[in-house]
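Retro notes - structure team

What went well: the batch runner handled both jobs without manual restarts.
What didn't: labels got mixed up in the shared folder, which is why I'm recording both outputs here explicitly, each with its sequence directly above its tokens.

Job 1
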Amino acid sequence: KSMKETDLAPKLEMIQALHRQAKEGKTFKDLAPRLASFQRSLQRHRRTTVSLPAITETGRAILEQLVSDLKNYQLTELSDTQLELLLTQLANEDPAVRFGEATLLFNGSLANDLLTKDQLRHAMNTLKKWGILFDHIEEPINKGAVRRVSAVTGLASLLYADRAGYFFVTKADLSDLIDRVALGMLWEHDNRGYVNRLGWIQLFGEYTVLVGELCRRRELVRGEKVFLMATYLVAYRQLKAPLIMGEADEGADFLIEMMNQHPVYRRYFMVFLRDWQRDLQQERPQSEQGWHQVFNYRRLMQALLMSADLPEIIARQITNQSNQDEQ
């Protein structure tokens, strides 16, 4: 693996410290600037070889048989070996295997109650491993994104299933997931949506779904949700490529759900928004990336304004600002 655990430890410690302080309600004011400066410290490395899983004819036959059993309501359980095959093939670069078989089976086994608690825990522990969730994240755009996004999506499905009645996720799991998700959102820089031959990547959109799932957990205190919301906003704000495949709509859904959960999230968003608007007003971009950031901002604001559930005070702050810009 290109990235050693030792490289990750200090990054994780930084995130854990910010998480802890937010949880105790200490750092709302300087939370975003601190997350942003931490993000700037995440270095990139040169490209190394990415290897995604191949599948044998036998493996393919097993998956096809399982899919057929699932569709005919004949699938009642998965063996540990079958689950392992499925978890590995979630990262197959061929969309027919990844979506048409592995993801279909994974979601089907969650929906139909086919996995034991041990298997559910094993799936979660597998997908949140560094070598999977952050596979080649620190390198230029690469197809390791397939493995990373399959982990992000799989973890969101597991959290959803847990909330729907499996109850296998512990408080310690959630705390650990918050740290990994925060680090992943800040570090991720692959903004591709649909990619020919690989199918959907859309990492940022999938992270938004995952962060939304975490924020629906009753076990999280408000400070932790503010921490996740701030991380999402900092990550969104700095993205250097255009988000044009629905990511802003996902973002608006997440933010509005948060703002209607409790006034503290509304207040936090207002503070972040005013800073963002002030900075956008002060500097006219001189680069392509800078203009992408302006238009990503506009897309998110438009998506927010489209919703009937957006708090009135936030709508006014968005529209007043754009009126001032045009004068």
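Job 2
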Amino acid sequence: HSFNTFDPKIRINSEFTNTVAVKVTYFTGSDSASYSDDVNPTYIYLKCVPIHTHNWSAAASGDTLTVECTGMGCDLATRTNLYQIVPEGEQIPYDGKAHPATVTAPSTTLSGISVGSVTYEKDGKSVSAPIDAGEYMASSVIEVGDSPYTVSTNFTITPAEITDFEWGTSTATYDGTDKTPVVTVKTPAAFAGTKTTVAVTGGTGTPTNGKAVDAGSYYVEVTGIEDGSENFKLPDAGARKNLFTITPLDLAGYAFDVVCTPTDATYTGSENPPRSVSVKATKGSKSFNLSAADYSLAWLPNDPKEVSTYKAVLTFEGNFSGSYTTGN
């Protein structure tokens, strides 16, 4: 070969060099050679040391890809090499964070092999990351030369187990609005404050459209988590239920507008009370129009039968407590 047109890699005394200034003076074909810089022979003889090119054979099975070099003269310490996709665990408790799988590779980087990113499926649908509770399959495509091989593994993110709740207030006072307590998770501490969904059932009170409005006792039962019920496991029914009470509103200090219809009547010899009585209680910006279910009615000095002026005596009940006598 002419060094002017070809730049060989020469191995001399176990050393590689690309320097063409090296001039071999004599070579007998043995493993050694003598050389100098001032001799320029007509012919040189090179001992050829072939550069090894890996010839990969690959087979994928489940979560593992086995890659082996079948070429002669391979200098890899281990001809058989494994790539494996590995999850963080087979059963991972939900914690609101991503739990990615990884692909482990041989300690020696193998040329011509590239590992693709890990992708995920949950319930047969592609997801960007394994966060929510459920069954997952993680996969990666590994390119060996021009041939793709897929490794995959399955794992589960299990729901976080809730053991206790903060039940909110145990009592409230009637004001005509929903008093259903806000119930949140207490333990595990990682999810403390997470809001729940609840159902209201009656004790002595009767729910209004599923809400606790009127005075009485109620049971509030946790039915799920407000955001992401699939990620949580609720405790047994007994630990999900709590009793709370709405107490009647004491009307002491309220001003009353009591209107009797009619306002007067003619003596007939029989009891002749007003056909209807309307009652409105007001205190500051609060006012309530009371229905007949909110009070019992009596008259002073007695039942309205004789010719006289009568006072209405209201004793509040149901959603209200206290009493009021007109004309006082």
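One thing worth noting from job 2: The radius of gyration is 45 Å.
We'll revisit the folder naming next retro.
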